[in-house]
Fold this sequence. Notes:
Elements: E1 5-9, H1 13-24, E2 28-33, E3 44-48, H2 49-58, H3 60-67, E4 71-80, E5 83-96, H4 97-110, E6 114-117, H5 123-126, E7 132-135, H6 142-146, H7 148-151, E8 153-168, E9 174-180, E10 185-194, E11 197-203, H8 206-211, H9 227-236, H10 238-241, E12 246-247, E13 253-261, E14 265-266, E15 269-271, H11 286-301, H12 307-337, H13 347-355, H14 363-369, H15 371-388, H16 404-407, E16 411-415, H17 424-434, E17 440-444, H18 449-466, E18 470-474, H19 479-487, E19 493-496
Parallel strand pairs: 1-2, 1-7, 2-6, 4-9, 7-15, 16-17, 17-18, 18-19
Antiparallel strand pairs: 3-5, 4-5, 8-11, 8-12, 8-13, 9-10, 10-11, 14-15
The structure holds flavin-adenine dinucleotide.
Amino acid sequence: VSSRRIAVIGGGPAGLLSARLLARNGFEVTLYERLDPRATYGFGVALAGQALDRLAAVDEEAAERIALLCLPLRRWTMRREDESASVEDRGASGVQRTGLLRTLQELAAEAGARIEAGTAAWVEQVSPEADVVILADGVGSQGRETLGAELGAEVQNVPIPYMWCGADLDLESMTLFLRRTEHGIFCAHVMPYGGGDCTFQVDTVPAALHSAGLKEDQGEGDAGSDERSLAFLSDVFRPPLGAGELLGNRSRWSTFRLVTCERWSDGKCVVLGDAAHTAHYTVGSGTRMAMEDAIVLSAALSGEGSLEAAFSSFERDRRPAVEHLQWRAQRSQTWWRTLSNRYDLPLPVLLFSYFTRTGSVGLERLATSNPEIVAAALAHRDESHAHGGAELLQDPRAPRLLSRDELGGGFATLACDGVAPWSEQSRALVAGVGGERGRSVVLTGGGDRRALLDRFDVAEEMRTATGAAVAVAVPDDALDDAATAIAAGRLDYAVKEG
Ligand SMILES: Cc1cc2nc3c(=O)[nH]c(=O)nc-3n(C[C@H](O)[C@H](O)[C@H](O)COP(=O)(O)OP(=O)(O)OC[C@H]3O[C@@H](n4cnc5c(N)ncnc54)[C@H](O)[C@@H]3O)c2cc1C
């Protein structure tokens, strides 16, 4: 575009990388970051490999310097009480957030961007001097608030309280520590990022938090951590922490905010990163999404066309990936919210269920990359069928769909179209089945793959709550999804549609 003066509000990964790439392309960039550089906080964040590959394609030097900060992680471990199981997968990296931001600031300044640190800015203030205003001011974006109606912005609070802490723990893998207390289940999502430091992020359900006498957003003044909660969590996680300490840095219970926007630009303003969209932290993709947004937006603005065309091209490129991630994140968030319903599954089955929760990894892939964990999960299925006296009609090792005849009589058909799992609606459906104990059910319904995966989750909810055998009608091309769901204990049988 011909506009040359760019104001960027917000110096997180989205703003800083945009500033770097645009300044390199000859734009006159001023970036405003309200925090003093020494005040930046946060422990480590996950960075998926794709983000650096994409960056390397446009800025090799930046990608190389960021790669130096990254601790590659290929192993996920689940430790529930005293048990432990692991899987290996294609990796992400752990990176210290402060280190990443410092490097991005240097890269932006070296490219010629002016960085006004310790200076808050807002749209009305920077607009007169700028041809383009990039709003990269994070999840609580004031800019998005200002343009709210124009962007069709919506912010939804997701009732899973979480607290972002750190710990000095020498771990080699991403680790999920699961602990049951008298108040309920507390989970720590722990990620090493080098030097024996870990991000130690804990979440739970509101009932457990309140039963423990803890509350959201308690802390000393603006900068303090919630010391009572830190002490409580240090106790809960003492066995895995060992001699390690739980560390706070403005650590308090918060509620995840899901941000969506129908449009990402208005006039000369454009939103990106967390200001435009968020995805639940349990898919660990916020930093990657912010960086990918910056790469695509900078390329679009550096092209020939009008500003409007550049913004459209940015949105056309990024929106499908963002919406796909938000869908996966929604599934992940639901899995964590409903963990207590499957907490006591044999650990290999629980780990398998966790790893396949978003629908992006299936049995086929895991059977190749992690044959032991798949074998262990399936051995539990064989065993439970043997004990129940049931014939093992369907073996996920050789997946196929059963015919209704093979399934036998006694299965009632229940239409399950557009029912969101673990919702009021699904609870009503489950209650109907629960009223007729001993019944077996086939769930049917149309729709795409998303609808089918939802139906598998309704099946899980139903068989967990009622003990009924639950089958789901599955199209021929969804064999791997069906085998995955059976191995994860989401359903008993998959039958041919029709
Ligand atoms: C608990 C938690 C855990 C997370 N874990 C992960 C993880 O493991 N992996 C991962 O990839 N992501 C994680 N994320 C998300 C990740 O931190 C964000 O998605 C990512 O930082 C988004 O980048 P951004 O640049 O859009 O916004 P941010 O990083 O939030 O940056 C926005 C910046 O704008 C500044 N700002 C705000 N208002 C103004 C103003 N008026 N003027 C000037 N400056 C302003 C803020 O100070 C801030 O520095 C986590 C987030 C949370 C809350």
